[in-house]
Amino acid sequence: MSHPPDSGPQNQQHYQPPSSILVVGAGVFGLSTTLAVLSSPVYARTHVTLVDPDVPNTANQRAGRPHTYTPNPHAASIDSSRIIRSDYANSAYAELATEAQEAWRKGFGGDNVYQESGLVVVAGEGGNEYVEAACRNVEKNSNGNGRLTKPAAAGPRLEDVERLRSPEEVRVALGSKESISPTTKGTEIEQLGTTGYINHSSGWANAERAIRTVFQRITSYGSSRITFRRAEAKQLLFCPSQTAQGNKPTVSGVLLTDNSRLSAELTILATGAWTGSLLDLRGRLQATGQVVAYVPLTAAEAEEMQKMPVFLNLSTGYFVIPPIRNAEAPSTANAHTPSSSCPSPAFTRIEKASGER
After folding, report:
1. Between 339 and 10, where is the model more confident?
2. Who's near 262: CB < 8 A, 6+ residues apart?
3. Which of these, 63, 62, 34, 75, lies nearest to 216 by C-alpha position?
4. Is 318 helix (H, G, I), strand (E, B) or coil?
5. How far apart are CA 66 and CA 52, in angstroms?
6. What mean pLDDT comes out for the span 74-90?
7. Cα separation values, 200 from 266, 297, 311, 321, Å
8. Angle 25-28-31 (CA atoms, 0-180°, nearest 5)?
9. C-alpha–C-alpha distance, residues 332 and 10, integer Å
10. What pLDDT, on the 0 to 100 scale, is given for residue 49?
11. How much is the average pLDDT of 41-59?
């Protein structure tokens, strides 16, 4: 089978899209990949099968059996909120994220799902190479310098990026009313950060609502284009394939835990932390987790924090996302709570990251 096309139209003319694609995993990568295939004219004749333990079976839908879609509570792609930013040290990734943000601004995840609250990125004493590189990329991708040939509406503007050169400037950017005094302890300043920047063009999104919206868009293509299979893959299937380098095995599909098989011309694994159960990733990749805390807020605290930007300290690993109102509270699987309700009007999310991302 030929490789997917590059961005150039000449390469697309010679590309033979597969007649069938199997996507394993219905998290953010699996759903967004499926939607991208279904919405692309290049794959207009391609049928997609999406397999995941939490999607409704197409057969059940045809039989008229009701099934309410609930995203996998163990997936990393749902829960209360995710930072939406173009603030990355890798320039290629930053450019992709800049383009993606335009889709968020146009309602990609649903109405009022994306909140452009701004993002404060800081580091401790001595600075941080990642913070500096991310800031340079945001400035490079801004509209003001013309380095990227994008529409005028795309990307952050230069005036949206402000350098923060002291803990006091960080405090002001966060909207805190308490000034830093000479008696402020070093640990408190370390948590706050000493230098960094604020990007007013970044923000956060209600992750679970976005996942549900994308799933509904996928279902709108109908059973002639998309088949859902509620199942779990346990093994890749291979078949011999003739290549320029000789006979090499090619992935032909997956074996499910009930020992049935799913086959397609192209198989895409979007299995997140479960990828290691299908591929030997030892020495290549390692799945890690993060400690998440949800802090109940009073009505006054929620009102004040609603206006704050996202906070990301890349020296300590802590980041804080503004609160979501109780009416929109998600299942909060990562918080290990049995209910989606909170006794207070809102909660905010605090995480301790395991490393820079």
Report:
1. 10
2. 22, 49, 51, 229, 231, 233, 253, 254, 256
3. 34
4. strand
5. 18
6. 87
7. 40, 24, 12, 14
8. 60
9. 47
10. 98
11. 93
Please tell me the total number of residues recorded for the chain in this structure.
357
5 pLDDT tier (thresholds 50, 70, 90): low
Task: Name the strand (E) or helix (H) holding 310.
Answer: strand 310-313
- Name the burial class of residue 132, with classes exposed (0-12), middle (13-18) and buried (19+) by CB atoms within 10 angstroms of its CB: middle
Which residues contact residue 20 at a Cβ distance below 8 angstroms, ignoring those fewer than 6 apart?
46, 47, 48, 49, 263, 264, 265, 266
Residue found by looking up tokens 């400690």 in the block: 291
Cross-strand pairs, 280: none
**Among residues of the chain, what percentage have pLDDT more than 90?**
50
What six digits make up the tokens of 16?
Answer: 């033979």
- For the record, the structure tokens of 126 come out as 């001595």
- DSSP annotation string for 196-248: EEEETT-EEE-HHHHHHHHHHHHHTT-TTTEEEEE--EEEEEEEEEEETTEEE
Which pLDDT score is estimated for 204? Answer: 94
Angstrom distance (rounded) from CA 329 to CA 19: 40
**Tens of pLDDT, residues 105-123:** 999 899 989 999 999 999 9
pLDDT at 16 over 70: yes
d(CA 138, CA 155) in angstroms, rounded, equals: 8
Pairing of strands 266-269, 20-24: parallel
Lateral strand order in the sheet of 291-297 = 161-164, 195-199, 119-123, 310-313, 318-325, 346-352, 291-297
